Automatic annotation (TrEMBL):
A Pfam family recorded for this sequence: F420_oxidored
Protein name: Pyrroline-5-carboxylate reductase
GO BP, sorted A to Z: L-proline biosynthetic process
Molecular function terms from GO: pyrroline-5-carboxylate reductase activity
Species assigned in the record: Montanilutibacter psychrotolerans
Amino acid sequence: MTIADSRSTPLPTIAFIGGGNMARSLIGGLVARGVAPGSIRVAEPVTALREALAADFGVVTFSTAAEAADGASLWLLAVKPQVMRTVCTDLAGLARERAPLALSIAAGITAGQLERWLGGGVAVVRAMPNTPALLGAGITGLFANTRTDPAQREQAAALMGAVGSSVWIDEETQMDAVTAVSGSGPAYLFLLAEAMQAAGVAQGLPAEAARALANQTLLGAARMLTETDDTADVLRARVTSPGGTTQAAIETFEAGGLRELVGRAIAAATARGRELSAAND
Ligand SMILES: NC(=O)C1=CN([C@@H]2O[C@H](COP(=O)(O)OP(=O)(O)OC[C@H]3O[C@@H](n4cnc5c(N)ncnc54)[C@H](O)[C@@H]3O)[C@@H](O)[C@H]2O)C=CC1
Ligand SMILES: O=C(O)[C@@H]1CCC=N1
């Protein structure tokens, strides 16, 4: 694993194939960080989504993948794993002509599958970002196939580096674990936020107060994790007064098997990534 740092690399025109949730987070993050909207082309078949992207960010939109891809040397494949094969197969002729860098954010789908579906001989980078990219606070795992040259790796890292940090992963099989930890990870925190808010209300707090208390606590704790050198267990120990309130809660979590449950959840997500590859080949 190496930490990517390519913030000074200029970005070429980018074609997003798929303009759904993750594409919106990435596009929003790129535009907020100064990437020219006119250099972002988006293919999205759903009219309402297409119009919203154009209105919100000023990007150039198209209803078909080929129209968007034809103007770009960097293709960001942001469709669901279930339709990736069809989308790539339809773009294979254009891939032969343009020799693009194909950067896929799909869970599970391997670089080998993408290269094969795009007609072979194509530079492919798999990236696993997450939705905090919208705020420039994402993290992305990156894996490049052997067709990718150093300049293309720089481009991929620069694109994802514009919306957060990124790490190169040497073993492609580890991309499913990246997906399970950080790609899906924001949802785990949102689930915890929901549970803390509901529990606060159950203990008598007004809903708005419970929401503010839970959300700001998650933000403050996340900042302590990322902005200090202290590890999670040290930070936790500082909150946990012997015989106090935190100890009562932590003992309840431990007795309920929280660590084992998190392990099982992340193992299930990792396994699902492998299934998505096999099921959509
Ligand atoms: N949502 C997330 O937090 C993350 C998602 N991903 C990956 O990103 C990909 C997209 O996920 P979401 O954005 O959540 O899904 P989504 O369903 O919101 O977006 C996919 C979009 O692709 C469009 N589409 C379908 N066929 C198309 C075609 N032929 N040409 C162009 N566009 C087409 C759909 O209309 C849809 O708007 C998935 O492969 C997922 O594994 C990766 C990291 C995080
Ligand atoms: O749930 C999913 O399959 C995608 C991949 C990571 C986050 N969302």
